[in-house]
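4.2 Preliminary Data

To establish feasibility before requesting continued support, the project team ran the inverse folding procedure on a target of 99 residues. The structure was first converted into the token representation described in Section 3, and no sequence information of any kind was made available to the design step. The complete token record follows.
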């Protein structure tokens, strides 16, 4: 019988198999195997989760939605040449059209 994280892990693995999605593990103690998501998680935790005491699920959703909007549309990212993700995606699409 599975409990807690084992149950969750099995559910995710089953879902990924059902949807034909390859599942790749990050080795314990090797977070830089996925540095982009680790960087995002750190920013999200430091700038949103650690700074906000949510009083309800609805408030958490609203605050997180607002943070995500700012992160993706207003804030330049050094890893994207100091463009916002929206600007970067637009530029990439234009470059593909021109090619």
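Position-by-position output of the design step:
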């Amino acid at each position: 019988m599975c409990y807690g994280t084992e149950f969750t892990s099995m559910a995710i693995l089953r879902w990924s198999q059902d949807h034909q999605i390859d599942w790749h593990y990050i080795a314990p103690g090797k977070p830089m195997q996925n540095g982009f998501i680790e960087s995002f998680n750190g920013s999200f935790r430091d700038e949103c989760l650690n700074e906000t005491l949510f009083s309800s699920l609805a408030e958490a959703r609203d605050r997180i939605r607002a943070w995500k909007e700012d992160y993706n549309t207003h804030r330049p990212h050094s890893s994207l040449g100091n463009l916002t993700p929206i600007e970067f995606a637009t530029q990439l699409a234009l470059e593909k059209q021109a090619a």
